């Protein structure tokens, strides 16, 4: 059965027996149609990525909960389009906040929606492999640093679904924005997912991913191609990120150039670690081999 595309804002759509989805009203060039909150369970629930602290969205989540007990409010990471609704929702339904660690970091990237949620305060932090369970469902934490250092995915053991947050999205590759975003960590986390046998991915943004391994292989190949593009641009004399982005990301909405530049920087930092490039101020050059 094909999984429907993200639907109307403010309605809990049942997309498989243990999973419902509520779309937040925060569409943007960076969030696509908005953040998708997932309700997992039947008689009792976990809420994954409660989203922005928007009163209408929180009300829609509460309506979807429909007086059932909530065992956990779970956040994949602490960007402001994912975790701020956790605290008000916790007060409303009396559930603990469980999931990723708190992380507050000044990030000079361009994404206002991706600034860290400084108020996030979990009741319990999950390490890789730790679980939260309810009546007929078990969610296992899968540590996937890269987009952020505190990023977790959550595997629903009963159905083979993986809730991927921003690590793998259904509409675009994720932004890897230094200093917290790390390209080596991101690639290692992608390799980890490639070794898993998840049936389907439910991302926080975009369509469900019904061929997970195929997409992960393609995204890893895409990143390697970007690395090659960067090295070629430098060899041709293009030595600044702002000059690389327009030629590397043809057709990209110019509003997203800043975000693309952050991922280019993440690649360059990793190439610098490998001793393949060096920088002087804002300029980059190849290292002699």
Automatic annotation (TrEMBL):
GO MF entry, a single one: hydrolase activity
Against Pfam families, the record matches this protein to: Lactamase_B, WHD_BLACT
Q: Where is the signal peptide?
A: none
Name the species this protein comes from.
Answer: Flavisphingopyxis soli
The protein, known as = MBL fold metallo-hydrolase
InterPro entries documented for this protein: LACTB2_WH, Metallo-B-lactamas, RibonucZ/Hydroxyglut_hydro, Sec-metab_biosynth-thioest, WH-like_DNA-bd_sf
Any keyword Hydrolase? yes
Cite the Metallo-beta-lactamase domain residue spans from the record.
34-205
Q: Which residues cross the membrane?
A: none
Q: Hydrolase: is it a keyword of this entry?
A: yes
* Record key words, sorted: Hydrolase
